[in-house]
Amino acid sequence: MTKKLHKSGVTAAAGVQAAGIHAGFKKRKKDMALLYFPDGATVAGVFTKNKVKAAPVQYDQQALQQHDRFKAILINSGNANACTGKQGKADVEETVKLLSTELNIQPEEVLVSSTGVIGMFMNMETMKKGVKAIAPEVSEFGGAAASKAIMTTDTVPKEVSFTFEVAGKTATIGGMVKGSGMIHPNLGTMLGYITTDVAISQAALHAMLLKAADATFNHATIDGDTSTNDSVFVAATGKLDNPLIVSSDDAGYAEVEAAVLSICSQLAQLLVKDGEGATKFVEVLVSGAKTMADAVSVGKSVATSSLVKTAMFGEDANWGRVITAAGYAETEYFDADVIDIAFSSKNGEIQLCEAGMGVVFDEELAKKILEADEINILIDLHLGTEAASTWTCDFSYDYVKINADYRS
Amino acid sequence: MTKKLHKSGVTAAAGVQAAGIHAGFKKRKKDMALLYFPDGATVAGVFTKNKVKAAPVQYDQQALQQHDRFKAILINSGNANACTGKQGKADVEETVKLLSTELNIQPEEVLVSSTGVIGMFMNMETMKKGVKAIAPEVSEFGGAAASKAIMTTDTVPKEVSFTFEVAGKTATIGGMVKGSGMIHPNLGTMLGYITTDVAISQAALHAMLLKAADATFNHATIDGDTSTNDSVFVAATGKLDNPLIVSSDDAGYAEVEAAVLSICSQLAQLLVKDGEGATKFVEVLVSGAKTMADAVSVGKSVATSSLVKTAMFGEDANWGRVITAAGYAETEYFDADVIDIAFSSKNGEIQLCEAGMGVVFDEELAKKILEADEINILIDLHLGTEAASTWTCDFSYDYVKINADYRS
Lengths: 408, 408
Hints:
The structure is a homodimer.
Chain A: E1 17-21, E2 32-47, H1 55-66, E3 69-79, H2 85-103, E4 110-117, H3 124-134, H4 143-149, E5 158-166, E6 169-178, E7 191-196, H5 202-215, E8 231-236, H6 253-273, E9 281-289, H7 292-303, H8 306-313, H9 319-327, E10 340-345, E11 348-354, E12 357-358, H10 363-370, E13 374-380, E14 386-393, H11 397-404
């Protein structure tokens, strides 16, 4: 029992309580999480770039423009409340009211996230019952339960936390993330929640989150699809009592920025490792690009290639598929005759292509390198000094199995 | 035995001979094809847009700029001769010389195609042996054998032919195509060869082929990857003795243009139906777009979505994945609140989404519709009058199986 009394993930930082329960959106598993900040928290968010945005995403985007302090974020899994029109919007508003009444806070202090099936109206009876049940459950030991309640096709709950120094004090940051499959450059179907005890303005927090999401979640790719509900929030309770961080000149700004980047990076890697049916984590490292845009474009093209991903699953040193995917990336500068390609892992490194040509290589060493769980695909474009990293996973039988029948 | 004496596919038109043999690039299966035009043919071609181009593609592009009449096209499967540098180019030139000597024609009258593994030098001993063996084999009944010899992961040979009227005479057009998997908007790994007996200029033929390829092969998509070797050729022998067609005002121009479009369309659909591990043919019909570019972009986005394709395999009426993929397509005009989505097949039609919202639908009818081998996904953007069609296939366990281990 003491195992449960652990301030993990989103509840690691002071001033954050959480809970995770089964409300009834799913048959048996936990499907409702609540983050509660009794004394409030400054919240920033980044959202899907899909032109089809779920009702809660539209609601949250507006709420974050109007306010900077919030006391609760309610999350349900099982129903995305997307493509639900006016009814969907009304359901979000009713949910906000139900929760604010139950927690005795203002409706303006509530944010809402949903994930699950698209195009179905929320079951508001289930929502009402769930909200009543979850409100009394929140505690500073609820992070682990919350991280379970936000899962859909995830195979494991994903949470991390660590401490760092801010203005001579020990600050804490923690987070949880949900998502597997559908993870793409533009965020995919993922929900991420990060909490910290530092005191910081919404604008500063938002700038840090945007930068970190762009460098981490947006470089993680599982299958190339982006979703209607993707959202990442960061909430800062201010319990650390450091001097408020407002601009990049303020003490602690650089440390908090680095912490937000680090936790996003850790959470994004957990996402990719839990890619639907994934058996391997693959990092595509593009270097020698003339422009950063070219490095990113080549990395994403290789990381989203179904043929590269199936070759990784098959542990086949098929670098021809890598150079093919690099060649159809949209780039400004590209010279097929100077590219180098190598594969590496904890089992070694092997050069496969030099100056755009295949080199004779040791097939046994290549096989040994590809047997590892984490593989690096190294591409040197030899045209400049820019570099970018993209994370992906392999493409297995189980990917098809999981996705052929998710809805039912 | 008489079965083999059939003038099918590329040998349907007068003035074309062909052969298909086992040369030794593959272990057992046929791997070398030859198209021979004893009295020459006017040839046009379109090629991959990948920045990494195989040696034979580079050779053919140059040859077609310099000449318009050719007598032979040699094709090998098993080795793509891509990423092979100067050696690869020298090997193409040597191949051209070997074949011209064997057929007693000029080197300038020879074109070469390759498909197979990337990054390996050609085995020129095998090539030499193969060229010697195939030259005496050509006949006007060799179309079927040639269509087998160009296969890689294809499960069936793909050839068609038909007749049409040109200037009061009965003209013939025939073709063969190779490819499965890797088929994408920008042509994918495919080789296509079309022959006809009409008399037409290279410029007119090229214009027709460009237009037809853009409307057919470029709208067919299996897995989103494009290749280093994609090529489609059309050869016109002139044996029909019609007045030479040069401009669109000439008698027969419209008929030949329609025939080229029709055969490209038939060949492209055969390609998609033979998609690696495909169990269903899926046509995505986008209508009501404000611009043609938007219609094409939405169609390709839906047709390349791994999640849509696995849902088709699972016979799951998951229209949420369709609207999600439509929403992340790059479009100029898009309104999530007016879109309609329906599925149809020979078993009926069912509306799933109206004005961006899910509608209550008969799950049993939906299931019955999706059980068919050919499915239509109908998307009405309700913003204009432009429409486009994209062909794809579903994504099955076998896709992963075939591609995890192709190279070895």
